[in-house]
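Record filed here:
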Amino acid sequence: MFKGFRLRRRAASAIALAVLGMLVVACENRAASVGNTNPNPTEPQKASEFSAGRAFEHMKKMCELGPRPSGSAAIGKAQDYIQSELKSYGLKVVEDPFTARTPHGAVPMKNIIAELPGEKPELVLITGHYDTKRQDGFVGANDGASSTAAVLETARVLAKTKPEYTLWFVFFDGEEAVVEWSAMDGNDNTYGSRRLVAEMQADHSLSRVRAMILFDMIGDKNLDLKRDAESSAWLVDAIWSTARRVGAAKFFLANETAMEDDHVPFRNEGISAVDLIDFNYGPNHEYWHTNQDTIDKVSGESVKIVADVVLSSLPEIFKQLNNPKPNSQPRIPQ
């Protein structure tokens, strides 16, 4: 999947601003350390029952199925596995099969959605894609399997709770291009997320969606996530500040990037959305979209770090959603 990768850098406009920024960070770090019993403040605290071992096993299972492009026999097995897991957590599971019109003709695809009722009917979506690039030998341990693992294990942990907002755990099919992702033409990519937005528009349920959280490529053993400028600024801020608070700041960098991914169809409809992606995979990013994206390159611990930060962020996200309409538009760096 071509992510429309555009690295943006901003220099400090004045020494005073730089000094102020350092003072703010120092104060935040000091405040975050109050009551922190973690003996190593550079490592994240255990924030949930999220299991790194289970996450790794989900990634391994996906890889054992082999390449899983949309419409393949292997992705059918992945769909069965995902649904079986979700049902074992006691969640209501809904399939949304559809036929995508692609440069190679009609391709059957299927979104999978599990619902966890909350105190409120309004929705927060926790999402990822489970298909892989259409390439012989490509098993997508990071690109496809890690997001699948993150959403599955997050669903298992939260299934035991009664959240304030109703949660949908969404597994998108067709994130990958059938031929080639083009930043100039969004028709051969993000089929599943575009489908869900269109379906929810048609049945007038899109207005229920308050926020969308996207996991993608978070299994890298050398984890480092950058802030996505195409995501909603308030959501990015909520998650990055939580990362500092729980001791995971070294994995959530201050640098910015701008990504095109499954969050864009939601963001384009004015819905708050955030993309959590480590688009720095292997030396010089050489593992991405190659057959080197294998199970030995990923770690369940990396998936847990990101998911734990999201889980710890949910109270703050819910709190902000209760305030008058947070700004859902992305913050574009100058």
About this structure: The beta strands are 92-102, 105-116, 120-129, 165-172, 209-216, 225-228, 252-257, 272-277. The first helix runs from residue 15 to 33. The CA atoms of residues 146 and 219 lie 5 Å apart. The two ends are 26 Å apart (CA to CA).
